[in-house]
Design a protein that fits this description.
Elements: H1 2-27, E1 60-61, E2 67-77, E3 80-89, E4 95-97, E5 102-107, E6 110-111, E7 115-118, E8 127-129, E9 134-142, E10 161-165, E11 173-176, H2 183-186, E12 187-190, E13 194-195
Parallel strand pairs: 1-4, 7-12
Antiparallel strand pairs: 2-3, 3-9, 4-8, 5-6, 5-10, 9-12, 9-13, 10-11
Length: about 200
């Protein structure tokens, strides 16, 4: 009986030790990110942000140093304007975008009123950009004065550019803005990035 208890104890100790090693390995890397738990019926596909054998990110986030941006008008009607904020990977390596851009209208005098609101469709999903590839975020804004804005002349100061910050970054891209003033206090709706 004593031998059985010792054998069971050693077996439990060995399995706990093995689990402890696995936990230490997973927790020791600073480059892993949290993701949805894998389905019990199929293996999870590899994530572009998981660490490779060397401990480096397989695909790095796109930042302002490798992105060039432009705003392209797409549609207009009944006081509404629509466009796309398009970014191009000008770097020599693939990078990934996931989420929403920051977007602050500016002119020669500084910041112009901007109220950025996130649209749910399309929502955030990782977009891998090979060198030369593009991603876009949909934009929507109004050109009819609202809430005490002047009706004679521009409703807001006219912007000449925007400071657009890629998702999860802090440095902005300077993007030309040639589409006139944005009314309703500079309210712009923006979607998450998607492949363009």
């Amino acid at each position: 009986m004593t031998r059985r208890l010792i054998a069971c104890g050693l077996l439990v100790l060995a399995s706990v030790t093995a689990c402890g090693d696995r936990t230490a390995e997973v927790g020791s890397s600073d480059t892993l990110t949290t993701s949805d738990p894998p389905s019990s019926t199929s293996p999870a596909p590899p994530s572009s942000t998981e660490a490779n054998a060397g401990g480096e990110l397989a695909v790095k986030r796109c930042n302002a140093s490798v992105l060039k941006g432009a705003v392209e008008p797409t549609d207009a009607g009944a006081g509404n304007r629509y466009g796309k904020f398009v970014v191009t990977n000008t770097g020599s390596a693939q990078c990934t975008l996931s989420g929403y851009s920051g977007f602050q209208l500016e002119n020669g005098a500084g910041a112009v009123p901007t109220k950025l609101e996130r649209m749910a469709d399309p929502g955030p999903k990782p977009v891998n950009l090979a060198p030369g590839a593009k991603a876009a975020a949909n934009l929507h804004w109004g050109v009819i004065p609202a809430g005490g804005e002047p009706v004679d002349g521009p409703c807001q100061p006219e912007p000449s550019k925007a400071a657009a910050i890629p998702p999860n970054e802090t440095a902005p891209i300077s993007v030309p803005w040639t589409l006139g003033p944005v009314c309703s206090g500079g309210r712009i709706e923006i979607s998450a990035f998607y492949a363009a």
